[in-house]
Amino acid sequence: MERLQHHWYRISPLHLLLYPISLVFRALAAMRRALYYSGLLASVKLPVPVVIVGNISVGGTGKTPLTLWLAQQLIDNGLHPGIVSRGYTRDRKQGKTPRRVSTDDSAEEVGDEPLLMAQRALCPVWIGRDRPAAAQALLDAHPECDIILSDDGLQHYRLQRDAEIAVVDGVRRFGNGLLLPAGPLREPLSRLRKVDAVVVNGGAPHAREFAMCLAGTRFYNLLNPEIVVAPDAFAKQRLHVIAGIGHPQRFFGHLEHLGLNAQQHPFPDHHHYVATDIDFADADAVLMTEKDAVKCAAFATEKCWVLRVDAQVSPALTQLILEKVTP
């Protein structure tokens, strides 16, 4: 899949082969969606409202920061959310059984994004490939929860939903506009007309889209999180930056906006880090995202610094979701 990605944002001779396959993928995705909409494939209705945060494209768009932002908004409005996610466990058998994510877990056990969300300590986080089962297990364990947020669940139609939010990368948008494997889309662009809100992370939002940005100006030390510094603490230092996220250039650009000039080391999304990945002999500091940090904590040194970022979104989105999920 990684080798195909550079073809997703252009049309190349390879598309003579990829485009027919994408038509088959499109037909199968439409058939599956229609079977769930018609009731021929069974879906599960939970006893509490469900809000889906997902996307129609492969790769990071900012779903996890938006999910955390929405959880905080719901808490501020008197609700008690719980978050469910598929998780990215290395053990496929382990991923079949719903489980709670604890701050003591490792990213290898539960996935980097679920662990990041659990470490924010806003609400319970559960994972499982069967999203309805994971959500029901969460509700059984936490009866105070009165709303479920499903992180990256737009195409998981077995779980009925009361509201859908699609997150779009405002810079890359939809690439060449083709479905997998010819392009980055999981579903056609027409799917966006059926969601309740389209949130654009970075770039200029179009009509009826909500703008979102990721804000962060403080770094904490991965070995000693109580040590927090501003960007100017790294002035004149030799910096290296790693990013194993869906769009590393977004993070690199953010650091440049903060005035930091670092040698860049992009890695694939959900990369499994080892100690040598962050061992730079000439580095005074190694900068990383929170998603990288949960996977590097076991072998971090005092040179490792993490930038915390938070989503900033129009309050109008909060109001829209509250109208969808409350009587």
Tell me what you see in this structure.
With 327 residues, the protein is α/β, with parallel strands linked by helices. It folds into two domains: 2-213 and 312-325, 3-Layer(aba) Sandwich (Rossmann fold); 217-308. The chain has eight helices and 15 strands. The protein has helices at residues 15-38, 63-76, 107-110, 112-119, 131-141, 248-257, 290-296, 315-325, and strands at residues 50-54, 81-85, 99-100, 125-127, 147-151, 163-169, 197-201, 210-215, 219-221, 228-229, 239-243, 262-266, 285-289, 304-307, 310-313. The protein has a nine-stranded mixed β-sheet, with helices on both faces. Strands 10-9-14-13-11-12 form a six-stranded mixed β-sheet. α4 packs across α7 (290-296). The longest helix has 24 residues, at 15-38.
Keywords:
15 strands, Rossmann fold, 2 domains, 8 helices, globular, alpha/beta, 27% helix, 327 residues, six-stranded mixed β-sheet, nine-stranded mixed β-sheet, 20% strand
Characterize this entry briefly.
The protein is an alpha/beta fold. The chain is built from eight helices and 15 strands. The chain has two domains: 2-213 and 312-325, Rossmann fold (3-Layer(aba) Sandwich); 217-308.
Secondary structure layout plus pairing:
Layout: H1 15-38, E1 50-54, H2 63-76, E2 81-85, E3 99-100, H3 107-110, H4 112-119, E4 125-127, H5 131-141, E5 147-151, E6 163-169, E7 197-201, E8 210-215, E9 219-221, E10 228-229, E11 239-243, H6 248-257, E12 262-266, E13 285-289, H7 290-296, E14 304-307, E15 310-313, H8 315-325
Parallel strand pairs: 1-5, 1-6, 2-4, 2-5, 6-7, 7-8, 11-12, 11-13, 13-14
Antiparallel strand pairs: 3-4, 8-15, 9-10, 9-14
Helix pairs in contact: 4-7
